[in-house]
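user: can you give me the structure for this one chain? tokens are fine.
assistant: on it. calling the predictor now.
[tool input]
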Amino acid sequence: MDEETPRVELTPAAADLLRRLRATHGPLMFHQSGGCCDGSAPMCYPEGEFRTGEADVLLAELDVEGVPEPVTFWMARGQYEAWRHTRLIVDVVEGRGSGFSLEAPEGVRFLTRSRVVGS
């Protein structure tokens, strides 16, 4: 993947939801574990609430209009190895996802779609 291609991008619906969540919860972060439950759903937390370490990769610091600081996007290293040649597109869909993610009470959930980039 070349440096011009963003690794992670947001749909307008995802950016709008992040603005609302930021107003309520303060600075935000994403973590995508690739676990068995909601494996294609990134979890949104208050920044720093989910502890990252050597087992995680920082893929992006997302600039969201109306949000004063970047929203970091982390992924478990094992998941990254499987998805390293993709662009991740964070979207919002109807329905409840994980109870740990900040959007759960909103009746919607974040969802990651992916597109293979390059060869």
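assistant: here you go. Strands lie at 8-10, 28-32, 43-46, 56-62, 71-76, 86-94, 108-116. Residues 70 and 79 are 22 Å apart (CA to CA).
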